[in-house]
Amino acid sequence: MGTTGPGAPTADREIVLSRVIEAPRELVFEAFTEVRHLSRWWGPDGFTTTTRAFEFRVGGEWDFAMRGPDGTDYPEWIRWTEIVPPERISLLHGEFRDDPNAFESVLTFALHGAATRIEMRTVFPTAELRDEAVEKYHAVEGGQQTLGNLAAYVTEIVSNGAQG
Length: 164
Hints:
By secondary structure, the protein is α+β, with helices and mostly antiparallel strands. It is 29% helix and 37% strand. α1 packs across α2. The radius of gyration is 16 Å and the shape is globular.
């Protein structure tokens, strides 16, 4: 049995993060689909996001850079592979188009009473790439901070009574 490819076990190659956000599902989904929102919350604490190109549709791409607190720029690239408003987004995420180390993520937006439970399931091409992301780039902590920034952003919109 192979370790990669369709149908291969993923437990040693994945990271799963989730959070309940006190905001309507449609608003949380919109925060992922409009660049005016993404630039205000995307990324771990202390990072900023600058978009070079953005086209939200299946096959569309988001080309952007994240700047870390130390001033380092990190190139980023996403291609959306599935969009089911307001329930699910699947994407391929790497540093650049055709990045051989790109990873797949599935985001689900589930009703949780009046709130939204978001889950980010990320599967890396290999266990080694997953381990490197966790150990060297602090992917779990960064992902949790990113979801925290999203939660803070959309709950502020809700409390202000407007949608950005």
